[in-house]
Automatic annotation (TrEMBL), chain A:
Protein name: NADPH-dependent 2,4-dienoyl-CoA reductase/sulfur reductase-like enzyme
Species, as recorded: Kutzneria kofuensis
Signal peptide feature range: none
Domain FAD/NAD(P)-binding: 5-295
Pfam (any one): Pyr_redox_2
Lineage per the UniProt record: Bacteria, Bacillati, Actinomycetota, Actinomycetes, Pseudonocardiales
Amino acid sequence: MRTAAVVGASLAGLSTARALRQQGFDGRLVIVGDEPHRPYDRPPLSKEFLAGKSSDIGLRTPDDEALDFDWRLGTRALSLHPRDRSLQLSNGQTLRCDGVVIATGARARWLPGTEGVNGVHVLRTLDDAIRLRSELVPGAQLVVVGAGFIGAEVASTARYLGADVTVIETESVPLARQLGSEMGLVCAGLHADHGVRLITDVPVKRILGASRVRCVELADGRQIPADVVVVGIGATPNFEWLAGSGLQLADGVVTDAACATGLPEVVAVGDVAASYSVYLHDRHRAEHWTNALEQPLTAAATLLGEPRPHLSAPYFWSDQYGVRIQFAGRRREGDTVRVIEGNTDQRSFLAVYERGDLLVGVLGMNQPKLFSRWRRQLARPVLAP
Amino acid sequence: MIEVCRVAELPPGEAVRVATVDPPIAVFHTEGGELYAVDDTCTHQDASLADGWLEGCTVECPLHASCFDLRTGQPSGPPATKPIRTYPVIVEDGVIRVAYSEVAC
């Protein structure tokens, strides 16, 4: 392999480029990114960066200079042509490459018909965060659509900034799918602790307003006044550009446990990859930060001809209202949950999820030390199929 | 010098966070019996290393798994890229003391 192209200049893309160098690749290494910005870290966009506490979110380090990357920022990959081993780029160039890393991530989903309405935001990119930040002024009436982790973090940050916040959730309990109803309710309780209104069990019908958002209308007819709306209803993988490439596309770019696709010397990593997980015995598209950091080590090895499966248990964290929530493993319907330390009312506890005798998940709220210990028990792929 | 605690109060494998200085420091007692003092806050993102996983002379950040060598303060790899500061530890009369200063050593 003489030339490798990494498509996507975020955590997963940059980490794969670094891993290729660390694992001995000394050929040409081109990184294509559609945003004009250098790679940056996304978790702070809904927290420290949005709150104006930290602007230092760049991922590049002085050590990267020695790795000799050929950057193509502000450039989108339009198509992949495996037969002549090339990428067509939005700047008109055709990039010939022997190896390709697909790391094009995912984009935020909008409520249909709300794109372009002033005051309505999604939060996925640095530019999204900068636009939203300028509108989160004290006294602003913010409506957050979706009580998942992004929605909850935005609500928390906006509250810190002095906004009046309402969160709307379609399900009856937020985060019930990931954490189960019992723990979902504990997380939902954080909103009430901090004077944020949570309205559950009702979908949003439409957003009203002429030149600018005025209110959010719910399916039951209620109208919630809004100066600013943040839509946090999940993300869609960026894989349309790969149509016709011969790659198997499902909920993302399908790969095996070593990030290999069906095409030789094409791997996929991060949010766009629907990878087989040895841990979960299932194909799984993980949108979490730790996955975007760990999968690249596997993907680089595969590209360099030494495939090895990625074994880690899923892990994610969230910071809301000064509370740190950490979860590892995976909960399924029917698993039981048990608080083994601390107290949910105190917002400081450790809970374990069990399937029969098997430990399948660990949830911590403000218990990082205990969580670290328990998470290790999940470190092996032990789940039964 | 900062007085931390008595050696007997910090068993091997444990760490203590000292918040009387800013930024706070963490003192570790390794399974091998050594004592180390370092900055408590991970250089990547706000997390307390005293809450981390101690293995040999290495501590793993509880949030994002960056590992730091307690002897040198150097991170082993991403996401952390900057070292944490290290401080000399002295034990006198069974009491752990740290030579804390604003300047890295």
